[in-house]
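Sequence, please.
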C-alpha cells in the first residue's frame, strides 16, 4: 500500500469517527437528554366527614390526596420519602407520609396518601366556628418530593417537585380543589 493511500484511509477513519461522534451528540441532546418529570396534582377526595356540634365539638375528616407523576425519560425517576402537610389558616392540622419509590422509564404513576385531620388543632382555631357555620372549611395542602432522574445509571439530574393544593371541604359532603405544581432542577 502506498503512503498516499494510507493517508487517505486515515483521513477517512477520522472523518467517519467525527460523523459518528456528531450523530451520537445530536441523538443524546434530542432524544436521550434528561427531561423534567411532569407532576400533575389531582383534586382532593373527601373520604370521610363526621361533625358533631355538641360540646365538645367533634370533627373527623379524612382527605385523599393524589399526585400523578409522568416520567418522560428513557431512565427511571427515583424519589425520596416526603411528607404532605395540610394547613388551616396557616396552621398545620394534618400530615401524612409519602413513601419513597421509583417511577420506571417512560411511565406514569400515581402517588396517593390519606390525611386525617387533627381535630384539636382545627377546633382551636379562631376561624373554625365561623367557617363551620358557613358550611365549608378551606385548607392548603403542601408536598415536596426530592428525587433523581437517571439514564443508564450514569447521567443523573436532581429534581425537586413542590405541589400546593387549595382545598375547600363543604360540610354537605363534597370537596373542591385547585392545585399548582412547580419543579426545580
Amino acid at each position: 500500500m502506498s503512503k498516499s493511500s494510507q493517508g487517505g484511509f486515515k483521513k477517512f477513519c477520522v472523518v467517519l469517527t467525527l460523523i459518528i461522534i456528531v450523530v451520537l451528540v445530536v441523538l443524546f441532546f434530542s432524544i436521550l437528554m434528561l427531561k423534567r418529570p411532569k407532576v400533575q396534582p389531582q383534586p382532593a377526595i373527601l373520604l370521610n366527614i363526621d361533625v358533631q356540634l355538641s360540646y365538645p365539638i367533634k370533627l373527623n375528616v379524612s382527605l385523599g390526596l393524589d399526585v400523578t407523576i409522568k416520567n418522560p425519560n428513557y431512565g427511571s425517576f427515583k424519589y425520596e420519602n416526603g411528607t404532605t402537610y395540610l394547613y388551616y389558616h396557616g396552621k398545620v392540622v394534618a400530615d401524612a407520609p409519602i413513601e419513597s419509590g421509583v417511577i420506571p422509564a417512560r411511565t406514569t404513576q400515581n402517588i396517593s396518601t390519606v390525611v386525617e385531620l387533627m381535630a384539636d388543632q382545627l377546633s382551636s382555631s379562631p376561624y373554625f366556628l365561623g367557617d363551620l357555620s358557613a358550611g365549608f372549611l378551606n385548607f392548603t395542602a403542601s408536598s415536596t418530593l426530592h428525587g433523581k432522574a437517571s439514564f443508564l445509571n450514569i447521567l443523573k439530574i436532581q429534581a425537586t417537585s413542590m405541589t400546593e393544593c387549595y382545598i375547600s371541604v363543604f360540610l354537605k359532603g363534597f370537596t373542591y380543589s385547585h392545585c399548582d405544581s412547580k419543579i426545580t432542577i
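The domain at 34-184 is CATH 2.60.40.10 (Immunoglobulin-like).
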